[in-house]
Amino acid sequence: MMNQTIINSINEQVKLEMDSANLYLSMSSAMHEAGLTGAAHWLRVQYREENDHALRLIDYLISRDAKIVVPAVDAPQYDAKTACEMFELALEHERLVTRSVNNMVALAKQEGDYATEIFLQWYVTEQVEEEQNVTDIIHKLRLARDCGQSLLLIDAELAKRAYVPQASQG
Length: 170
Prior knowledge:
Structural class: mainly alpha
C-alpha cells in the first residue's frame, strides 16, 4: 500500500503535467497565428509528450492500486508574444516541473518508497532533456534576434521534430 502523501504528490504531478500540455497547446496556437508553423509544430509535439507524462503517472498509480484524481486543467496565462519569449516561458515552466519532480523524489526517499523513487528516475532524466532542448532553442533564437531569415531557418528546423510515443507503465 502506497503512502497517501506520495499518492497525493503524484496526483498533483498529474495535474502539473496536464497543465503543461495545455500551456504548450496554447503556445502552439499562438505560434500558428504568428506564421511560425515549425515552432507551432514543435510545441504541439511537446503538448503530446506532456500528456504522455501524465498518463505514465496515472498508469503507475494504477499499478500500485492507488486512487487517481483526474484534475481540472487550468487555462494557460502568459504574456509571451515572440517565439523567443514563448520558449523562455517554456524553460521557466520546465524548471517548475523539474522542481516538482525533485520534490517527489525527495519525498519518496524520505518515506522509504523505493519503488516510487526508482519510477521517478525516468522523470528526473526526462527533465534534464526537456530543459536542455528548450535552452538550445532559446540560444538560437537569441542569436537570430530580429533577422527574419534566421528566424525562418530556425522555424524550419523546429518543424522536423517527430513525436515519439513514450512507453507507459500499464
